[in-house]
Batch of 3 targets.
Target 1
Amino acid sequence: MEKFISMTEVAAVLDLVEKKKYEEAAVLLDEVLAKEKSPELYYLRGIISMRLKNYEYAIECLERALADGGDKREILRAMASAYIEQGKFLQAKEHLEQMDKKDVDAYFLLAISSIFLNDPISAKEYMNLAYLKDRERTKELLEHFYSVFIRPNPELTEKEKEFLWEKIKSIR
């Protein structure tokens, strides 16, 4: 019976996440984790913590998920995202390089990390690999990157931003 209640609670957590009620989801998931531990639940807690911009705790939860046997690729990618959000590009790159089989998101994150680590040659290689894996997804990721990092950047002029946006939009 305890498992059933836990599954109902997990469904409620997922519903709250879908509604972007991350604080409530975190509280409920912490209650579930007090009763039952699993890599999937720690992964979910890490993702919720990232949405709340609590990156240190997100990484802690994701490390626990990884140690407990969770999906290595998903967890390493999530950890890399958390490190990138904190500006810790070397740690992000190190985690992504541990992945056995990289997908478009991993190559994209490796490219972004390489850019911020002043390694344009690797950045170009990784971006090309992402593009070859999935053009549409790469464009989507670039658009998101633009909205999060470029558009709000006060150091760039509107003309520079417009130039970059047009470059992204022209990707086929």
Target 2
Amino acid sequence: MNNYDITIRYYESAISDFKLSPQRRAMLCSTMDKVAAMHVKHGDHIRARGVYYDVIKIYMDEQLYEEACSAMLRQVEAVLGDSPVLDNSCFSILDECLDNCDKIKNNVAKCKVLTELGLKYSLLGRFAVAVDCFDDVLRLSEDKQLVAVAMQNMGAVKNRLGEFTAGIPWHEKAIKLHGNLGNRNAQGQCFCNLANALTHAQRIDDAAEAFIHALQAFK
């Protein structure tokens, strides 16, 4: 028996004990999260999905919506890792996560979940929903870091949709805000996105200048 199996047996024994005590729900969920993460790490995505399903149910029963949404996002990662073929259950999980996101009372936590949702929807090609998520972050967030990321992702989505001219203002806003916040690496990524958009918009000289700024940001 390898270390992975031994550790899983140890955790599963602890989970059985924690289930007997309602007062130890937090420890139960934490341990289940660790088990699911270990399954993912070792490529056993099917078992990970099952564990996440169980822990999400506990979080929802306890009305811990922030924790439930975070677990749903991790469950999507397990689903995506299970097969190179897109599983439609990804969208069911993401849609459930989006529905419950409004119940998160902490504004920063809500905007972080919305950001991750936007990234996941964008990755899976549901750009309209991704844009709505980033719009919500821009509308709700008072955290400038999250706002900068939302602007960056809005521009990236526009590029992926081929709406390069519409994306240019988003790239420029993200560049400025990342610069003010001292996020040089992120600013460099935005300059690359801007250069790509400018190239497709036939603004070649401006694109070349953006590429130079990107190289400087990455130094």
Target 3
Amino acid sequence: MTASDRQISLSVLRDVERRDVADLIIAGLRERYGVAFDATLNPDVYDLPDSYPGSLTVVARLGGDVVATGTLAARPGGVGEIVRMSTAAHTRRIGLAGQVLDHLIDEARRRDCRELRVSTTSTWTSARALYASRGFEEIGLFQDTHETDVRCVLPLSGSGPVRSFEIVPGAPGSTVLLHVPHASRVIPADVRSGIGLSDADLDRELTAITDADTDLLAERVADLCGVRPWAFVNRLSRLVVDPERFPDETEEMNAVGMGVVYEATTQRGVLRQPSPAERRTLVQTYFEPYAAALAELVTKRLASAGRVTVIDVHSYPASALPYELHGNSPRPEVCLGTDDFHTPELLLDRARSALAAVTGDVTLDSPFSGCYVPLDRYRRDSAVEAIMLEIRRDLLASRPDDLACATARLIETL
């Protein structure tokens, strides 16, 4: 279940909501710091407008209750800072924080802020992942009263391309790499200007094409593993470029205008019509650095651990979309994508066994086939094993924790 599936309202803070917002923030701080937290040291939460002159506080309500909030504070030099972000514990992981954050980013742009800053606890990996998914760069650590915080910054003007990926380190001895290529909805402004869809149509297209929450699944899997796997996460939408396509004429999705640079939508409409120069810029700016960084990471992990297993994490809808080349194929709850060179039978057996705790509806290479291997290792290096985990979205929405546990069990056997 996502925020869009529930009766969520998003609005600017009203006077009558000040106490509810303060209580929400205080509850989050108590959860964060435990007995070390002293509410008297945080008087600003009771009067955010006066504590942060010129600020804007966004409030999300669910069924009349305040369940999420965040404030955009004005700082000198055209800088905005997000403060007092908080989400009620029982409504996390349904996209509320992302909605609040997106609203605050949009407001910062409307105010012509040159950059946006935010800080969060270094151990809150979900918050760090959320900020990274919106293009924030981590620029340093600082010691707070209780623990280490991380500073993040999002350039809003004159900043060049947004970083397209994030490497999340795992244990030094881990042989597993989780690859999450299609979880983000982020499109840099200069790329958005070349897409011909209205904002509403683009939002619908992103909903259709995005493997929502697969980044959260990978994060949960990593947290559950005794030996933490590495992760390589695409922080931009596949509508920018699709890092998993072959960059030449061998890519079968070229036939429907959805190769490395998508020109068509999931409904077979026109997404954009780039010139050869524009296409080349997208490939050079986003695709090539992504592919090179992932290949370099695999090379380093091979040097360190001797072998690597890439687990490609995806999701897909229960009903086929018009762009799919194999839309009439079975659509099981879990599809395992394989490669006859890089997916040994033992890896398949272990994947099937681990997933059996969640579902018996597992099929190979249907409705999607194959798995990602860096091109410099593809069909050349058997020390790089790979498998694609394609989860039907209704199963991912209803049993995310079970799927995370099953995938973690798989990783523990590798």
